[in-house]
Amino acid sequence: MKLAAAITRLRELETTMHAYQHAMDLLYYDGVTTAPAAAFPGRGETLGTLSELSYRLFTSRKVGELLSFLEGEQANLDDQINREVRKLRESYDRQACIPEEEFSLFQELLNESEAVWRQAKADNQYDLFEPYLNRVVEYSVRFAKYYDDSLPAYHVLLQEYEKGTSMESLDRFFADLRTEIVPLVQQVLTSSVQIDDSFLYQTFPVAQQRELADYVLDVLGVDRSRCALGETEHPFTLHFNKDDVRITTHYEENNLVSSLYSVLHEAGHALYELSTAESLRGTCLAEGTSMGIHESQSRFWENIIGRSLPFIRLIYPKIQSLFPRQMAGVSAEQFYRAVNKSVPSLIRTESDELTYSLHIMVRYELEKRLVEGNLHTKDLPAAWNRMYQEYLGIDVPDDARGVLQDSHWSGGNLGYFPSYALGSAYSAQMLFYMEKDLAVWDCVSRGELLPIWSWLEERIYRFGSALEPGEVLENCCGGRLDSSYYVKYLKKKYGELYHLQE
Ligand code: ZN
């Protein structure tokens, strides 16, 4: 094979894989936005066909040979192509090690398990879902072993979401959170400070909420000619390419902040995808590098910026003009305190900035034990409820609001959860380093967010997945995760909000 021909084939492979992905994502997007309910089976068939075609194409012997050839030519290839090959090699090894028949059986299982989970959650019947979860765990462990038998299965699973993260570092990270955040939550709970947030739960017409969403996207500098905002039950971000990013939100008439903060969250994901370098276009590197780094961006804009006093002061005049009656007599400072009120609660996606990582800690401990074989799926609800009592101090009344609340495990995404807590911790660490270079809060007060975006673009966004998570951290915040930045950030913020003594 000639080198030039191999590079052409590499490009063709990336273009075709991207086309399959584009089509599948668009079908998904259509399915959760405008498609009628009866479209479900037909769409499922098309998705099944497309995913099988792309799986076959990618795991073929020819692709393996192409990658081996290019790996042998490393010295003659530029850095970007070498990084493309490295990324493709990893996905190839991960997928090609699974026998095709087992792969399709697993896809079928996931389809069923998703549907059963939905039913089980609606009926509050964990027993219905338990056998499916058990098989999802079995398959995941088996696939991890196919990939690398010498490593713990959970370690292998983690790499898919946050490459370079080890169980040891996560154990340390969550142990730090347990030592520092659990007592902080207790202090907040017993503090004499009462925060009134009742004014956030009046009637807020959706038309005005939409206007507010458009406004905050403008403030953040999201290019709306390349980023559409849609409405779905559960908010998410999808990117087809850097000129077509889709974010969604869900408006609740009796809750002003649910949509406001989900828009800020998804806008953070969008800014990342909108800002990858032009040179990466069309390659497998034109996307965020990992779940954890992605989540650091959504949480940076949602919490660190979006829930700060300077940002609230900046957008509050708009909120007051949209909702003059509801916000009559409420100051920006009161609004700031209300959106930061912390109360241990049952549901992860509705939890506040302080308690959020404890919800993740529970899931990390449990999924690790499931994968390691130290916990049976039959005993999962009891273990879940015990940990909610221990870490958050609350009783779980039923499994629908307990172990059945998230879709991740039914979708086969074991190893995903830690990325959420890592993202929060990374974002606090990034703020610390950003403040060394920039007068962050002066920028926010003036409504000039461009320097903040530029700082992130220069160190994170433009690299897409050309850099691995560890390399991104190297670029922007000292190289490795250090939970003390996150702990300090939370202690300072909540110490002030709840007048806690050091
Ligand atoms: Zn997110």
Q: Kindly name the structural category.
A: mainly alpha
Strand order of the largest sheet: 1-3-2
Radius of gyration, whole Å: 23 Å
Overall mean pLDDT stands at 96
Q: Termini distance?
A: 67 Å
| Uncertain stretches | none
Q: What small molecules does this complex bind?
A: zinc ion
Strand content: under 5%
- Count of separate DSSP helical elements: 20
Biggest sheet details: 3 strands, mixed
Residue share in helix: 55-70%
Work out the number of β strands. 3
What is the element string, with H for helices and E for strands? HHHHHHHHHEEEHHHHHHHHHHH
General shape: globular
How does this structure look, described?
Helix 1 runs antiparallel to helix 2, helix 1 crosses helix 3 and helix 5 packs antiparallel against helix 6. The chain has 502 residues and is mainly alpha-helical. The termini are far apart. Strands 1-3-2 form a 3-stranded mixed β-sheet, sandwiched between helices. The mean pLDDT is 96. It is globular. The structure holds zinc ion. The site of zinc ion (ZN) has 4 residues, from helix 10 and helix 11.
Secondary-structure blueprint of this entry?
Elements: H1 3-32, H2 40-58, H3 61-72, H4 79-96, H5 100-123, H6 126-147, H7 153-161, H8 167-190, H9 206-220, E1 227-231, E2 237-241, E3 244-249, H10 256-274, H11 291-305, H12 309-322, H13 332-339, H14 356-372, H15 380-392, H16 418-437, H17 440-446, H18 450-459, H19 469-477, H20 483-497
Parallel strand pairs: 1-3
Antiparallel strand pairs: 2-3
Helix pairs in contact: 1-2, 1-3, 3-4, 5-6, 6-7, 8-20, 9-10, 9-12, 10-11, 11-16, 12-13, 12-17, 14-15, 14-16, 16-20
The structure holds zinc ion.
Residues 265, 269, 295, 298 line the site of zinc ion (ZN).
